[in-house]
Each structure stands twice: as structure tokens, then as C-alpha cells.
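Protein data sheet
==================
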Amino acid sequence: MTTNTATKSGPVWDWAAGHGPVTGAMSATTGCLAVATTGAATGMPPGWALAIGTAGAIGHTVSSLRERLSARTIGMRAASWLIGAGWTTWAMTTGPLTWAALGSLATIGVGMGAAARSTLLYEEARELEAIAAAERQVARELSAERRAIAAEWVDRIQRVCHLTIKVLAVEMWKTGTGFTIDAELPPGGTTYDKIAQQSAQLSADARLPHGCTAVASQGIHQGRVLIDVTTVNVLVEERTYPTDYTPLSIYTGIPWGYRTNAEEICVYLREQCALVVGPTGSGKTNMVHVILAGFARTTDVLTWVIDLNAGSAGLPWVRPAFDEQGHPVEGVRPGVDWLASTYEEAVLMLDAALAIGRQRKVAYQGLMAERNTDQLPISAKIPQIMLVIDEGAEILTSTDRNMKELAKKITEVIRMLRAMGIRDVLTALGATGSVLGNLMIRREAKARVCLTGGEVEGMDLGKLFPGSRGLKVDQAPYKGAGFMGTPESPAALFKNWRILPNQIRDIVTATTDMHPKLDDISRRAAGDAYANRWAPERTAWMRDTLHTPVDKPAQQAGPGGLNLSALRDQQPKKGPSKADEEALARMFREQIDAQFATAPDPGGVEQEQAPAASGLNLSALRGDADSGPAWLPDAITAIRDAGAAGMKPSAVADLVGRDRKTVRDALKAAAERGELVYRDNGPHSVYVHPDHA
């Protein structure tokens, strides 16, 4: 049988707590009574009590001065010691247990308690007043700074824009990179546009650093204007993608970069599409990875990627989930749900998206009626599908027959499936009329990004951000910087984060458990095309990429061509000597030269060179120094595998791990030798293998 030892028996005393006005007075009076009674009984000299009280008064005075207490408090404490010592001395002489002594002691106790309470309230009020005075001083200093800023910008706007505004408030940014002016426009129908179109002139007049701007936007009503002034250039520095991979949602916004005030800017893509424009070298590929990183962190989004340039945009997000043999890695899911690198795979993906959208319209009518909405409620159980199409804007404007077929399907997805949770993110190489002339892009892609990288050609910011004033390409000359505008945030300068392959691998691993699964209704509608998207035969090109060496020449013989084993690394374990191999090679060349017109031997002087298209170029057997670097055969093989679409020099540079200038020079030399064919198409120029030319 157990007993409860925690039963309450009355109030609990806190012996560690300090004395208050009441307990302090009680302690002082009882102490005086005890000393007086003991002293009278033992014959203690009365002067001792007075001496002790005097010493206590002096000690408390010194400690109170150190604490910087008020004179009222110091006087109360000293008087309490002296009055108590005086009563004790008198009581020891006349007797402490008389009614006169006890009554006077009680009166002293009440007086000490009241005085202590009064001084305590006074000290609290004094402390609050000191804090308020310090705050008022800071406010006065800040107000003085704000008044100076307001007066300066009133004069500046009068001088540059010929307008007299009334500044109502100046808000300093928490990041310390600038401030916002809230002003009232002059009467007479003046709009904020009069200030917005003078942004560059205002920035120059204010002597702002490069990359800093003064941008005017709408105020709380049409008679007010907000002027954001950036004083610190945060675009010049490179920042890596934040490592806080917290879950996101399509409803809460997905961060794509940060503004000049160092605050994140988010996009909301439940109902709208997005367009990302960026020429070569502006950081567009990095921007695509930032977009894919945001989608990978969302718990209600599945990402499908179409990149007809060898799938380079999506490969880093798929490779961590598969080993070198193409088998899935346990516990890791790809960062994108589907990747299409060919026309055929892209057709399968778009057909599946259309089938899913049509089936959702029928199957989820009951759910939408229950939720009283005409849009499909997106969640982790019914995820939104985001189609990220690299250079998709160019597909929509292409004249190629296959691309026209893809464009038709993409347009149908954009036009029909908004309510069913299927949206697109398109990229383009330039903000040109051919891209922005498409009505579907202008109407649906309300979230727009333009990465300039200092590029001027093909950057028509007026067409990309209609209605925005004062945007100039030279304001964002840094890689990864540009302009971004959404329905929630007007077009203004921004920069995206730098994201590297190692971090992509970390994000894929960290977000594996966040990825939703396609709902059963959508999965059945997509059919085998979706179910077998990671089948070995459909992902063989990924494994070939994994197995292709970087610095070793690959086999270059195409289908139906010669098997030139001299170009391979594979050597027999036992065979002829090096001299025998050279003699055999010479004999082979002589036999070929007797029947075919081949490329001339470098040692020959009088030989006539046959056309490259009609002869064989066996320079690889000669060890010719002009045959190109060691990685060139890998590049030529990849270009041949790319088919008629060919490959851009930038994609080849990423494949072989070399800088673009070196790769461009080597490919140009190969084209001059007839090993490749250069197809000049402006920004879409590619190198094609002769087999597909």
C-alpha cells in the first residue's frame, strides 16, 4: 500500500526570495525586538545597538550609491537603520516588553513598510523613465536621419522629375542595404510613373553605387508612391543556395532568388506559368537548377523535365538515384519525377500530361464539389505537375516539323490544364519578338525572369515586363543577376543563388522523403509510358553517359562503317610487336589508298587532296597532331548519338569538362577536317555528325 507524500499542507515559503516591503519591515522589527530583549536580559550596553545601526546605515548608503539609486531610497534605508537602532537602545534602557515599547515598534514597522513600498514604486518609475528617455534619444537621432533623407529626396525629385512630393515616412531596411520612401504625390493627377521613368537619372543624381537603383512603385493608393533606394550592391557577390532544405508548398511560394534588399523573392505557380530568359553565359542553366531545387523541396509538386539537349538540365537530379549499372539506389528517389532528352520521350511525357489532365477533370468532380471550388485541390495526395522545358519558348516558335508537333502539345497543356494542376516553366535564350510574340506565353507566363549577364542584344525588357519603367540591362552586369517580376512583386533587380553539383546531390538525398507520389487516378491515366519511365531500355543513354570516359578516345565507327580498332583503348593481351603493328597499318593504308580517295599523308608534297566527303580520313592511324585533343573522339561520338538535333558547343564543354573556348576551337577544326558539320542558326547553332547531316 502506497501513500501520497506530495499532499499539500498549506502555503509554501520561498526561502531564496528577497524581502519585499512587508517582509522586510517584519524582519527589521522582529530583529530589533529580539536584540532589545536579549540585551536587557544580559545587561548589554545600550550604546552597542546604536553603533551597529550607524554602521548598517553607512553600509547601505555606500551600496545604494554604487547601484545609482535615488536619494529618496538612500535616505529611507539609512533612516530605517538609525530608527531601528534608536528604538533598540531606548528599549534596552526602559524595557522592551512594555506596551509603550511594543506599540512604538509596531508603528515603526508600519512606517518602514510604507516607506519601502513608496521608494520601490519610485525606483521602478525612475527606471522606466530612463529607458523611455534612451528610446526617445534613439528616436530623435533616427528621426533626424530620416528627416535628412526625406529633405534630400524631396529636393532631388524636384530637380530631376520637376515634381514636389510630400514625404510621409522613411523606412530603413533591416538588412541595412537601403530604405523606402513613402510619399504623397502632388495634386493634379500626377502618377507614380512620372518618377518611375526617371529611375536611372535619380540613381545617377544620388551617386548610388553600380548595381544600386532608385525604383518607384505604386503606393497604398494612386496618390501615393513608394521609392525603394538601394545603397549597397548585393548583386556583385556570389551566394550559394541556402542549405536549409525545409519543406515547401506550391501555395506558400518557392524562392527563386533575392532582391537588392537581400530579401528572398518567391513565385506562386499554382495557377500561372513562368518564363525564364537568359542568353548563353548569363547563368540560365544555374537558374534552372535553382528552380528544380525549389520544386524538389515541395511536398505537393512532381517535376517533369524536357531538355532535348542531351537532357543536361535534369541529369544531375537523376544520377544520384541510380548506380553505374542503372539500378535504383536504395532509399534515394530522383530529384525530378521524369526526364525526357529526346523528341520521342518528350511526346510520351506530353501525351501523359494531357491524359492526366483530362482524367482529373472527370474523376475529381466530386472532390471539387465537396471543397466548393472549380480548381483541383492540390496536396501531397494529388500533387501538381510542373513541366520544366529547357528552351521551350524556342520550341513554340520553331519551324521544324517535329518541334511544331511538340509545340502543339505544349500549348494544349498550357491552355487546358491550369485548373487540374499542370503548369509549365519555359526557358528562352532571349527576350525577342519571336519569343514574346506568342500570345500563349504572354498571357499565361506571368512570372517572368530575365537574366542579362550584361548582354544587350535580344534583351527587350520593355516587351518582357510591359508597364515597367527604368529597367536597364547595364544595371545587372553580373552572372546570375537580372530582373524578375511576378503578379505579387513588380519587376525589379534580383539575383539567384549559385548551386553546384555536390549540393544538387545533397538536395536529392535530403528531399527524397519529401517527394509525393502521383495519385492513382493520374497514374492509371498516364499508363505504361509513366510506369516504365525509368526502365533500363529508356534510360540507357544515361548509363552510356556514366560510362563514357573523359580523357580516353572512344570508338568512333558509326553503324555500317569501318571498325577502326586502332582508335580503341582495348588492346589484345598477346599480339604482334609495335613494329609489326606499324607495318600492318602501312599495308592497310596502301590497300585502302589503292581503292579509295583518302586524305593525303602529311609527309607527301605532290599528293592531291581528295574531297573530305568522298574519301576516308585515316589520320587517327598516323598519329597526326592535327587530329585534335584526346577528348575530341568522345565529343564526336556524343554528337553522333544526338542525331539530327546535334549539340551546342556549351553542351559539349559540359560533357568533356573543358572551357567553352577550347571546345569551340577544337570543334571548328574538326568541322574543317570534315569530321563534323556546323549548322549555323544564330544562338541555336549546333554541330552535327556527317551521318545525320
User: Anything to note?
Assistant: The first helix runs from residue 21 to 42.
